[in-house]
Structures are given as structure tokens and as C-alpha cells.
Write a structure and sequence with these properties.
This protein is an all-alpha fold. It has eight helices and no strands.
Length: about 200
């Protein structure tokens, strides 16, 4: 008798939970489309207050490793990006961007963000090429510029932490960790965990 009653109770509970989640999902769906509708009505706003990123070409000597095709390719990409507008919009949804800056600006903002993604990846690749070739100081400058732009590329954080640890600059590793903790990115937990693991190793 007891197993039968337990089954009945379980079925009632499960039915209630499923209906509750259906209500939550329905509300979330409705809220999303209402927010999207409002966002599409927002007029074009000024983009002057965006945090534009400047490509640090002054720290990228063309003669350094010029025979390396990967390095040359990175420099070419960065020179191209230096003529474009670059903005890190990680953490923003398209709806957020339309609400903040107006629906007509969405495409241009997506372009700025795509430029940033290419910038961060290229800077990371070039910094690693410099470091692997023994040009640590050049690598360090590029890595630090990337961190200043709130990149969420884990390899950038780990290589810079490696350089700081080599020179016993523990306070800078702490600052690196704080930067990672404030990232508006889903990757931040992975970055923080990797940094913590690296710091704990001898």
C-alpha cells in the first residue's frame, strides 16, 4: 500500500513541478519578446561614450621576426584593425545593445565587437610568437594591453601570469586575478580556475 501511495505523491509532485516550470518558461519567453520589442523601438543614440580600443602599433616593431609568416600576418591584421573602430562588447546581448544605443546602431556595434575579437586573438597570437622566440619584454607589453581591454582569452592571462611569476611580481598576479573576476564573460570562471591552479604550482 505504501509504495502505491508514494508513487501517487510522486506523480502529483512531478506534475506540479512540470507545470510550474512551464509557467516560468512561458513568462521568460514573454518577457524576452517584450524586451526585444522595446529595444527595436529605441532610436539611434550617440556612440561617443564607447570605450574604443587603440591598436598599440608603437610596440610592434616590423623588423622583429619579420621572416616569420605568422608574425607578418599578425602585424598585417593589426595594421588593418588600427584603421577600424574596436570595442569590446562582451557580455552584451543584441537586445542590450539596442536598448542602450538604439536599434539602428546594432550592425555597426556588431562590427566593432567582431573587430575586437580579431584584435584580441591576433594580439595573443603575436605575443606568444614573441615569447617563444625569446622576446619576453615585447610579449609582455602586448599581453598587458590585451588585459587592459578585458580580453577573456585564457592563454593571454596564463602567459602573463607566467612572466610575472618568473620575475616574482606576485602583486601583479593578484591584480590579474582581480581583472579576471570582474570580466562580464562566461569564460571568467575557467580563467580564474586556471590562474589559481597555476599560482599553486611550483
Amino acid at each position: 500500500m505504501f509504495p502505491f501511495l508514494a508513487t501517487i505523491v510522486f506523480v502529483i509532485w512531478l506534475t506540479y513541478e512540470l507545470k510550474k516550470h512551464d509557467r516560468i518558461d512561458t513568462k521568460a519567453y514573454a518577457d524576452f519578446w517584450e524586451k526585444e520589442r522595446e529595444a527595436n523601438l529605441v532610436r539611434k543614440k550617440s556612440l561617443d561614450n564607447l570605450s574604443y580600443i587603440k591598436v598599440p602599433l608603437e610596440y610592434i616593431p616590423k623588423s622583429l621576426l619579420s621572416e616569420d609568416p605568422d608574425v607578418s600576418d599578425c602585424i598585417s591584421i593589426l595594421e588593418h584593425l588600427s584603421e577600424r573602430k574596436i570595442v569590446n562588447l562582451t557580455g552584451y546581448t543584441n537586445t542590450d545593445l539596442k536598448l542602450e544605443y538604439g536599434a539602428p546602431n546594432l550592425n555597426i556595434l556588431m562590427e566593432y565587437d567582431e573587430n575586437y575579437t580579431l584584435y584580441a586573438r591576433t594580439m595573443n597570437k603575436l605575443a606568444h610568437a614573441y615569447y617563444d622566440a625569446g622576446y619576453e619584454s615585447n610579449a609582455r607589453i602586448l599581453l598587458e594591453r590585451c588585459i587592459e581591454s578585458n580580453t577573456d582569452i585564457k592563454a593571454t592571462y596564463l602567459l602573463l601570469a607566467q612572466i610575472y611569476k618568473k620575475h616574482q611580481e606576485t602583486e601583479k598576479i593578484d591584480k590579474l586575478m582581480e581583472t579576471a573576476k570582474n570580466l562580464p564573460s562566461v569564460s571568467k570562471k575557467s580563467i580564474i580556475h586556471a590562474l589559481e591552479e597555476y599560482v599553486r604550482t611550483d
